[in-house]
Structure formats: C-alpha cells, structure tokens
C-alpha cells in the first residue's frame, strides 16, 4: 500500500512538472485571447494566416485527452496524424487544458503551437478544462460556445467559428454528444439545441463525435433541419471507433459539394479521424 501511494505521488509530481514545462514553454510563444471563462482563442507565435480557396480539407478527430487505443499518452503521434492529412480545418474532441488525468498538459495550446494553426476552445466541463476545439489555417472569427442543458454522463457543448474563403464565409460547428448507449433521448435533446445554435447559418459544416451510428434518430433531426451527413458516401463497414462503430460524422449544408471522404488508418487515439474534401458554392 505504501509503495502504491509513493508511486502515485511520483506520478502526480511528474505530471505537474510536465504541465508546468508545457505551459511555460508554449505560453512564451503563443497569444491567448480569453473571450469568456469557457471560450478561448489561441494564436501561435509562428502562425502565418492562410487564405483558403474554394475547396478545403476538413477533419474531425476525438483525441481521448492525448491517449492512444492502447492507453499510451502520445499527443505528438496524434499531431503527426493530423499533419499527415494537411487539413485546412480540424475539429477535435476530448481535449484537456490541464486535467491531471491527461498529464496536466494544456493540449489546445500545445496543438496550436505544434501545428501552426489558430485554435478556438469551447469548454464542455464547468471547470473550463475539458471540451472541444476548432483549429484552422485561416483566422477564426465570431467564435461562440453553448453548453447543452441536458446530460447523462459528462457535460457537453458546441463550439462555433467562421472562416473566410475565396468563395465567401464558411461556418464551422464542433461538438461531442453524450455517449451512453441508452442516452438516445439526451442526444436528441442535445441535437435540437445544436440545430437551434446553428440557426441556419450557411454554408456550414457540423463536425464531431456524435456517439450515434448511421440510422440513429438524431439524423432524422439533422435531415429535417436541412443538413446532409457526408458519411453516407463512405464504403460499407467503415468505422471510426475502436468498437467498430461509425460515430464520428461530418454534416454539411446542401450548398457544399463533397469531393472525397475517408477514414485514415491510424490508432493514435481510440478513434480514427474522419477527413473530407468539400467545395464551397
């Protein structure tokens, strides 16, 4: 027992030391604008804002706080998986800004600096340390966040931002719906709140871990609202989660045209990323 407690103390000390190093190192080279206690924009020091064309590559990726499918903490491996796809925009879920269970690291700050992308973070949790983020090569504007009013597990939210492209503005919405299998009613309630928050802004993309398989009732709500699930173009049997389910999705307003969509074969997280190439009207 004493040995276990001593080992736990050493692990916590190492985590705190790592967190301090990460924060000190990256805060020296990144600008952070806190729009609200639960909404933050991070700009890396070496960032060169890009001008996006009429076609852009987007990705959604659940990072599981930096842990792989075999529970190894390796945020660098996840960053490399993102970098390999050369996305213009990435929406990530389950990112931490200091949870001890995630080595105490500010993962949003680290990813922004590592990938050279501006980031907007919207907290799910009331402590502001766990949630969703949008990373972009182009400036993120009009950032906003809304926490859902219902939950069965951890609290959830949606984060939004706008980017300018050669074809005009594009709205981005990143979310992570509740995960218990029996929480269908909760996910339906969260989806209704997400649709109200989207408020028919167009053109727009909704990206995230919806914890819903194709055919789930939430897609009836999305379809009725006028959003198209681009995952329908994936080959039969495609999956993104370690339990062989297709629960990560990219939805679009009808005026966006899908050029390609794929699931890269990497298990740097317990989810695989979903990557799409879309054309703006």
Computed structural class: alpha+beta
Write down the overall geometry.
globular
Percent of residues in β-strands: 25-35%
Strand order of the largest sheet: 1-2-5-6-4-3-14-13
Multimeric organization: single chain
Largest sheet features = 8 strands, mixed
- Give the CA-CA distance, first to last residue: 64 Å
Helix content: 10-25%
Give the strand tally. 14
Q: Please work out how many helical segments DSSP would assign.
A: 5
Give, in order, the helices and strands.
HEEEHEHEEEEEHEHEEEE
Provide a compact summary of the structure.
The chain is α+β, with helices and mostly antiparallel strands and 281 residues long.
Structure description:
This protein is α+β, with helices and mostly antiparallel strands and 281 residues long. It has five helices and 14 strands. Strand 8 (157-165) and strand 9 form a beta hairpin. Helix 4 runs parallel beside helix 5 (217-225).
Keywords:
single chain; 281 residues; alpha+beta; eight-stranded mixed sheet; six-stranded mixed sheet; 5 helices; disordered N terminus
Topology:
Blueprint lengths: L1 H26 L2 E7 L2 E6 L10 E8 L12 H9 L5 E8 L10 H9 L2 E6 L6 E7 L4 E7 L9 E9 L2 E9 L7 H15 L5 E6 L7 H9 L2 E2 L18 E5 L4 E6 L11 E6 L2
Parallel strand pairs: 3-4, 9-10
Antiparallel strand pairs: 1-2, 2-5, 3-14, 4-6, 5-6, 7-8, 8-9, 10-12, 11-12, 13-14
Helix pairs in contact: 2-3, 4-5
């Amino acid at each position: 027992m004493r040995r276990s407690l001593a080992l736990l103390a050493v692990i916590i000390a190492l985590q705190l030391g790592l967190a301090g190093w990460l924060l000190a190192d990256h805060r020296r080279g990144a600008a952070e604008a806190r729009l609200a206690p639960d909404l933050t924009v991070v700009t890396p020091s070496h960032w060169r804002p890009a001008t996006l064309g009429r076609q852009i590559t987007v990705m959604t990726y659940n990072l599981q706080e930096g842990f792989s499918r075999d529970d190894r903490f390796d945020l660098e491996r996840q960053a490399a998986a993102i970098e390999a796809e050369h996305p213009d925009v990435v929406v990530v879920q389950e990112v931490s800004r200091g949870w001890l269970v995630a080595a105490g690291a500010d993962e949003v700050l680290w990813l922004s600096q590592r990938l050279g992308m501006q980031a907007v973070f919207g907290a799910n949790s009331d402590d502001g340390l766990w949630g969703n983020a949008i990373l972009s090569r182009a400036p993120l504007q009009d950032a906003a966040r809304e926490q859902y009013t219902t939950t069965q597990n951890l609290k959830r939210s949606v984060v939004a931002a706008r980017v300018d492209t050669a074809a005009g503005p594009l709205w981005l919405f990143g979310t992570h719906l509740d995960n218990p299998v029996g929480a269908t009613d909760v996910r339906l309630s969260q989806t209704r709140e997400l649709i109200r928050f989207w408020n028919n802004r167009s053109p727009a993309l909704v990206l995230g871990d919806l914890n819903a398989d194709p055919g789930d009732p939430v897609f009836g709500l999305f379809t009725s609202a006028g959003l198209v699930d681009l995952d329908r173009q994936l080959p039969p049997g495609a999956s993104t989660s370690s339990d062989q389910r297709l629960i990560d999705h990219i939805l679009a307003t009808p005026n966006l045209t899908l050029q390609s969509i794929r699931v890269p074969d990497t298990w740097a997280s317990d989810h695989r990323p979903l990557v799409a190439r879309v054309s703006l009207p």
